[in-house]
Amino acid sequence: MGSGPLSVAKFTLLELGRRRLLLVFVVLAILLTAGLGVAPFILPGFNSGDEKTVFILGGISRVDGLAIELCAFAVGMTVINHDLDSGAIVAILAKPVTRVAYALGKLAAAVFLLILLDAVFTAGSILVVEFNGGGHMDVMFWFFAVSAGNAMLLMVLVMILTVYLNNIIAAAIVVAFSFVQSQVSSVQAMVQNHLITERILDGIVNVVYWLVPHPLQSNLERDITISDFNVICRGGCPDLPHPSQYLAQELAHIPGASGTGDIVYWFAYLVVVCVALYLALRRKQV
Questions:
Q1: What secondary structure letter does DSSP report for 236?
Q2: HSE on the CB side for 124, CA within 13 Å?
Q3: pTM check: above 0.90
Q4: Percent of the chain having pLDDT more than 90?
Q5: What whole-number distance in Å separates Cα of residue 126 and Cα of residue 123?
Q6: Closest CA relative to residue 163, chosen from 22, 26, 279, 24
Q7: Torsion angle in degrees (nearest 10) through CA of 10, 12, 13, 19
Q8: Which residues, 6+ apart, have CB-to-CB distance to 122 below 8 Å?
């Protein structure tokens, strides 16, 4: 990366560092995660390790997963849109900074900040889990890795749309897209686990799954489901005539961890959307 992209990235990071909304998201997520770690020592009802696991891992997946997405949207909505609205992009491109350098610098700053925030959330969550007895560290690591990867793709999509649209509208479109992604992944998990056996529907789901950039998955939700099952059946399962079958059916609705093919596919889509961002900026009249 030459001096042009580095200069753009440097000033972009300084500008993003002044965004109070981003700071609010980070502080709230850290406080809520810390609260999850303290709660089992204060609140009644945590009589086993599985109960702690369900509460803490479930809370982390919701709080920190949402915080990473919100940070990605906050960055994506402002990193380019602010320059366009203020007219600063005209002054930037009037300097010896090409549009390629501008796009690379903005991407580098946004991705670096997102990974940094993800690392902060990862470290805090691991400390909370370790404070409450440890375990599940490998699945925690992959949860935050795939969360950062998924948020990165959404962030770049928002950046592309803000070149043409109001940043609120751009974010709303990508939120809707993210919802569709998650639904497609859930249905595809049902196909893989033979809950959906209709051949035509099976084919349609698989085609759609490999057309849209489906989100990466970790096994965190599956670990939470297994721990929750252990809590329910700790003293036996009188209400479940076939406990193992019940657990298998619950897991069948949850996508398993992404494999190498999914990661390669995600990376290919990320490259495509990064190129699309450059093309959008190149064609933008400023």
A1: B
A2: 24
A3: no
A4: 35
A5: 5
A6: 279
A7: 160
A8: 140, 141, 144
